[in-house]
Amino acid sequence: MPLVSSKEILQKAMSEGYAIGAFNANSGEMVQAVVETAQEEQAPVILQISQGAIKYAGLEFATAMVKTVAELATVPVVLHLDHGTDFDQNVKCLRVGFTSLMYDGSATPLEDNIRVTSKITEIAHAVDIPVESELGKIPKIEDYQSMLPAGYDYSSKLPADVQENVENLMADPEQAERFVEKTQCDSLAVAVGSVHGMKRAVQPLNIERLDSIRRRCGIPMVLHGASGVICTRDQAEEFGIKLNAHEGTIEDAVKHGISKINVATELSMEFIRGIKNALDEKPGEKDMRKILLPGKQLVKEKVRYYMHLFGCVGKGAAAGVSSGITSSEIKYHE
Ligand code: G3H
Ligand code: 13P
Ligand code: ZN
Q1: Which of 154, 162, 241, 248 could link 236 by a cystine bridge, Cβ 3.0 to 4.6 Å?
Q2: Segments of 68-162 assigned E as strands
Q3: Catalytic: 82?
Q4: Closest CA relative to residue 186, chosen from 132, 136, 119, 115
Q5: Ligand 3 mean position to 239 CA, how many Å?
Q6: For residue 329, is pLDDT > 80?
Q7: Per-residue pLDDT tens for 55-109?
Q8: Strand, helix or coil at 203?
Q9: Which of 45, 49, 83 is nearest to 63 (CA)?
């Protein structure tokens, strides 16, 4: 079916207590992997295009890929701009057909963030497109390069001084309430302990902070940097990570009202792992498809895992919508 707006599916997720996966895609294989899995699991899904993806694939090509694959599916698919940098880029995305926007003004002073976000919501709402904004700052692991011990292998929580900085960047509940009221944004990316770009899930979230922001704002909350966040309490135990009373995992965050969860790094790493396995097994292979396909398969399994964790499986079952295409017809293997 045609792309859908994120507005209704996030509102529904918020009221029914599950989260929708927002997966970053950089290539055709990634787009297919995500939508095929959504179709198989009957889950609504958000495909998001990052700044890196726009540079790599180009805005028009990325848009066309997502639109084409979404048309073949019967589950709701959203095309979302990830960490939009400015007003102009958001308007360009509106023009090419994105059905969900984001402006990330977290690096700018609060009043500038409010001003630009408000301009974007005004123009996007005129054509019924919702806008996500960011409050507090969700850092990147690369921001801490000089503070990480040499050879840091992501096998334990971040060092105390790094963690202290992550906590200092967290969103303030009172500020969040004022921000939402002033900007009229439709969803809020909240800094509650996650860090972008981590290679292993060792970060806990501050669930207490999440609760107090969610209660004041009343709009869907968005978790970024999910690749680095501990998925379940069992996983924390397995990794030997002790959670403090106010801390929790992705599973806890879903129970505490997170409605959209962004995953990029973990999918990229799975794609690379599949390709590496294939190259190790068939070093002389001349058919690139036989090398890329194992990457795509591992991405699909990871997307499936997350969809089950987020509780969105079965939530995209078509309400009387039919594209006339069966689930197996959107697969292009071999
Ligand atoms: O938040 C953004 C994701 O981590 C991916 O970013 O595709 O620009 O590297 P990138
Ligand atoms: P990760 O790459 O850490 O999963 O973060 C994804 C993200 O937040 C995209 O906006
Ligand atoms: Zn992000």
Answers
A1: 241
A2: 77-81, 101-103, 131-135
A3: yes
A4: 132
A5: 24
A6: no
A7: 999 999 999 999 999 999 999 999 999 999 999 999 999 999 999 999 999 999 9
A8: strand
A9: 49
